[in-house]
């Protein structure tokens, strides 16, 4: 028991310390690829390999973070509440667009993984890929996917959406502010919402609303998927 | 400091409430999402004041990256998968992300233009 507590303290300490360093490095050089997530992950993997510590020990020592992930998800109610007036005004558009977007996302994953003969575990880990990471994690866990993979899929999809999305919207002549914000928020979550803020206040607000609505939609869809595909 | 602690406790209460409801009624949802919806409703109804949770909620969202690190480190176990199927995986993720983006945008655009046209017609009548 004592050893377990030591382990939790040690792992929490390593993670928080490396995060603080990562943030400092990021703020000093301001390069997108120096995002603390990348630098810290590489740093911790190096530390674990150098000192011959085992990875399972590290992962089991980070239970505190699972709790914080839960409270972080609850915290998302605050930005949602701040946009309440905008949500009320556009309720119908938001729900229809985000729900259809999320559903087609799930359908496309199922279809593509079947066509390319990926196994079921991969498919399940990919299904929540366009949902904000803390919620994607819990959906992946509850469906029987691999949370670590899901987190990486979430970030990879966000990067793709951000790289090609604005161009695609321009090319397809989508002009509506609401549509642009919703699209980026649904497919690229927080990073997309941030990008949408560059276009303007309405786009950005729609982006963060879409991010949370998409997460809600996905968690409502997820239980039914168990009956259909699994 | 005390204020932060109290705010964290308030959020924690909603999280535990969400978890409690999920286990109680054996809902197929995650407790944290139910907790979020409960907090949202509480804020709208004025049961919970924005001031009671705001700073800590923003702190969570600002430093959410920290919470992903343990999972990102866990990817180390799966490097083999990325080496073998990386191309396929990226292709699926790219195509699916763009489908989501495009469908969401087009549906929103269609609804918005339709409702605008509807309003204009209404004014003419």
Describe the overall structure.
- The complex is a heterodimer of chains A (230) and B (125).
- Helix content of chain A is 84%, strand content 0%.
- Chain A has helices at 2-29, 36-50, 55-60, 63-75, 77-82, 84-89, 91-115, 120-126, 133-143, 147-171, 177-199, 201-228.
- The longest helix of chain A is centred in the first third of the chain and has 28 residues, at 2-29.
- The termini of chain A are far apart.
- The mean pLDDT of chain A is 86.
- Chain B contains 5 helices and no strands.
- Helix content of chain B is 86%, strand content 0%.
- Chain B has 125 residues and is an all-alpha fold.
- Chain B has helices spanning 2-24, 31-45, 50-62, 64-74, 79-124.
- Chain B has 2 domains: 1-70, no CATH class; 82-125.
- At the A-B interface, helix 1, helix 2, helix 3, helix 4 and helix 5 of A face helix 1, helix 2, helix 3, helix 4 and helix 5 of B.
List keywords for this structure.
heterodimer, A: 230 residues, mainly alpha, 2 domains, 84% helix, B: 125 residues, extended
The count of helical stretches of chain B stands at: 5
Tell me the series of helices and strands of chain B, N- to C-terminal: HHHHH
What integer is the average pLDDT of chain B? 87
Number of strands of chain B: 0
Number of domains of chain B: 2
Helix count of chain A? 12
Strand content of chain B: under 5%
Helix-strand makeup class of chain B: mainly alpha
Oligomer: heterodimer
Structural class of chain A: mainly alpha
What's the layout of helices and strands?
The complex is a heterodimer of chains A (230) and B (125).
Chain A: H1 2-29, H2 36-50, H3 55-60, H4 63-75, H5 77-82, H6 84-89, H7 91-115, H8 120-126, H9 133-143, H10 147-171, H11 177-199, H12 201-228
Helix pairs in contact in A: 1-2, 7-8, 7-11, 7-12, 9-10, 9-12, 10-11, 11-12
Chain B: H1 2-24, H2 31-45, H3 50-62, H4 64-74, H5 79-124
Helix pairs in contact in B: 1-2, 1-3
């Amino acid at each position: 028991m004592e050893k377990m507590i030591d382990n939790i303290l040690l792992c929490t300490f390593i993670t928080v310390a490396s995060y603080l360093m990562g943030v400092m490095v990021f703020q000093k050089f301001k390069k997108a690829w120096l995002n603390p997530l990348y630098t810290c992950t590489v740093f911790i993997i190096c530390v674990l390999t150098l000192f011959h510590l085992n990875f399972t020990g590290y992962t089991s020592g980070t239970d505190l973070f699972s709790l914080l992930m839960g409270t972080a998800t609850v915290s998302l109610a605050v930005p949602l509440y701040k946009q309440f007036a905008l949500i009320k005004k556009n309720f119908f558009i938001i729900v229809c667009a985000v729900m259809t977007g999320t559903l087609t996302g799930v359908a496309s994953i199922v279809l593509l993984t079947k066509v390319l003969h990926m196994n079921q575990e991969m498919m399940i880990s990919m299904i929540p890929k366009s949902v904000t990471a803390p919620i994607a994690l819990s959906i992946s866990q509850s469906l029987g996917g691999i949370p670590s993979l899901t987190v990486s899929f979430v970030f990879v999809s966000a990067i793709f959406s951000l790289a090609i999305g604005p161009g695609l919207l321009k090319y397809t002549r989508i002009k509506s502010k609401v549509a642009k914000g919703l699209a980026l928020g649904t497919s690229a979550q927080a990073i997309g919402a941030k990008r949408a803020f560059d276009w303007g206040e309405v786009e950005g607000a729609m982006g963060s609303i879409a991010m949370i609505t998409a997460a809600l939609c996905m968690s409502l869809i997820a239980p039914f998927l168990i009956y259909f595909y699994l | 400091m005390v204020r932060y602690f109290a705010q964290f406790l308030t959020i924690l209460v909603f999280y535990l409430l969400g978890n409690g409801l999920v286990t109680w009624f054996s809902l197929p949802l995650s407790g944290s999402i139910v907790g979020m919806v409960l907090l949202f409703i509480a804020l709208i109804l004025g049961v919970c004041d924005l001031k009671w949770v705001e700073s800590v909620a923003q702190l969570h969202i600002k430093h959410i990256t920290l919470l992903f690190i343990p999972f990102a480190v866990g990817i180390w176990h799966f490097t083999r998968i990325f080496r073998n199927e990386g191309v396929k995986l990226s292709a699926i993720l790219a195509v699916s992300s763009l489908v989501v983006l495009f469908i969401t945008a087009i549906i929103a655009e269609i609804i918005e233009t339709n409702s605008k046209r509807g309003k204009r017609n209404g004014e003419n009548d």
